[in-house]
Amino acid sequence: MFRSMVLTALGVALVAGLVLSAVQALHVSPIIYAAEVFEIAAPDVVEAHNDGHSHAHNDEAWSPADGMERIGYTVLSNVLSAFGFAMILLAAMFMARDKAQLNISWLAGLGWGLAGYLTFFVVPALGLSPEIPSMEAAVLEGRQAWWVLAVVATGLAIASLVFLPGMAKLAAVVFVAAPWVVGAPQPEVHGFLHPDAQAVATLEGLQSQFIYATALANGLFWLTIGGLTAYAATRFIKA
Predict the structure, then answer these.
(1) What sign has the CA pseudo-torsion 148, 155, 215, 207?
(2) Considering the domain boundaries, does residue 122 fall inside one?
(3) Segment among 50-54, 94-98, 211-215 with least mean pLDDT
């Protein structure tokens, strides 16, 4: 059964990953490329060594080259992410079937996809808005920690509603509230620090478009994963 789950998840991941990549290419990537035009290069870091000489170097992280290499890495990342999410949904669906007698169907799969969308995108995005290049952001470690908290808390809230009996379902309220009690980390300065006011106005417009575009892309991604995962589970996985 585990082998069937892995093969099913791979098939779903290929389709969902390509769907997400196509939507990103049409609606998300153009916004990122437009924002990158306004990025201001950081000055090289000058480091003084014990020998009395100063050496300039740039600590910019590696990134794929523009063009096919960048597109290829994006598609690969989307497919791998979709595979992991499909495995999570398969495990959740079978657990819900065995523990809560919830049937597996493509329509129920759309519901699971919506749950994944809320867990991994909507709730975290309410605290940490999707960001375009040149936008000021809080410290990376703080954002990562809060994102994990938001995802885990939302997932536990949904699991509480599905699996816990009666009044115990109220535990979902506690889980939903947890990320907001902690609070998402915020940057010292919000918005953009570009010295050109016209550039800032353009970036603010791009940021608004980016939020809607990423919401659309992730929504289609999760509905595709949910529906296909449930459909494939009923066809190819035998208990």
Answers:
(1) negative
(2) yes
(3) 50-54
CA angle, 124 as apex, 123 and 127 as ends, to 5°?
95
Q: How do 45-48 and 54-57 pair as beta strands?
A: antiparallel
Least confident of 9-18, 42-51, 175-184, 213-222: 42-51
Q: Which residues are bridge partners to 135 per DSSP?
A: 192
In the structure encoding, which two tokens stand for residue 38, read together?
């306004």
CA distance linking residue 58 with residue 83, whole number of Å: 35
Residue range of the domain that includes 81: 2-38+60-137+187-236
Single-letter amino acid, residue 217: A
- Cβ neighbors of 159 (< 8 A, separation 6 or more) are none
Q: Which of 220, 19, 22, 218 is nearest to 122 (CA)?
A: 218
List, in sequence order, the alpha helices (H) in the chain: 2-23, 29-36, 68-100, 106-117, 123-127, 140-163, 171-182, 197-236
To the nearest 10°, report the CA torsion of 192, 193, 198, 203. -20
Does residue 158 contact residue 115 with C-beta atoms inside 8 Å?
yes
On whether residue 171 sits in a domain, the answer given is: no
Among residues 183, 185, 179, the alpha carbon closest in space to that of 119 is found at 179
Q: What is the DSSP letter of 193?
A: -
162 inside domain = no
Structural Rg of the chain based on CA atoms: 21
Q: How many CA atoms lie within 13 A of 142 on its CB side?
A: 12
Q: Answer whether residue 92 is part of any domain.
A: yes
How many domains is the chain partitioned into structurally? Answer: 1
